[in-house]
Please model this.
Amino acid sequence: MGPSWIWDKLLSVCFRVQSFLERNSKKVVAITIIAGICLFWYAPVSLGAILIFTVSAFLLGTFDSRNLKKSLANLCIFLLVLGVIFSPFVFMILWREHQINNPAQLINRGHPKILEMTAEFENMVPENATTEETLYLLERYVYRKIPYDYAFSIFPPPLQTIDDIMVRMTATCWGRALVGYCILKNMGHDVYVVGTYAGNHHFWLRVYESESYRETFLVGGRREPWVMFNELNVYWSSPLDELYKTFFEGFEVGFIGMVEELALGSFYCGIPIVASAIYILVSKRNRKFITYVGAVTGALIVAVASGCIGVVNARLMLLPIIVAGGVYLRILNRKTRKLKG
Model:
């Protein structure tokens, strides 16, 4: 029972699963369409861009105008299998949006440490300080009290609550904004936590004064708000506007930000391309291990190279990866078809 035996058994299982799904393609199409609509409706921004990218790249690589039904069935089978494999990831994205929709569960302005920090900060602020000066001092104060949490996680963790942050006393931009919100709210300011999805995924604070507002905890490359909330209200931006920004608008970041965007973008966009390449080979009943290794390697190279173009060019975003990924999958699809024949 060596590696080759395990590989053969794994492929046999994959072949049987695909054959079963192909025999029940009508049910698969119905389930996938219903699930896709539900997911897009509940989390149009977080999952919308990923879903549009995955569908676009896969169709560019496998669409056959002579057999529309088969193309649709292949797409739905692929999406269903991909959704099942990455269901924990999808669930966590949905859970994070659920958390934002219930901000009272995240915010605890009466936490003893928050009350202590509020009193300490109020003593630091001059009596005649303007709102702009107060926000500047608050940013410096929170940054000193709550060091940035540099722990990297590919799998998105649940959003930290105030109770979580007060235990660890470290946080990302999300947690720092939440702490700043509690302090300002305790001081009587009309403040909201604001977040963006496109470009730099970042959270900051917006403080309203009459008809104007001021902001703090900002970084370069931010976007117009994707979501804005306090303890009582949650305001989401238009999904279409956010998706447009995700695909077309550029952003300005430093070198570290560019590396981060390239790494995360290539990883998340590389998954659908790699999965599509494997699906194509499985659908051809290809059993050669080296062929799968080559296909996966090529998919990763395409994702990183086209992701680099998107980051450097800054105004194309996901489009280079979609086009390059689709072209790569089309070439792989034709090549495997020739080898099979």
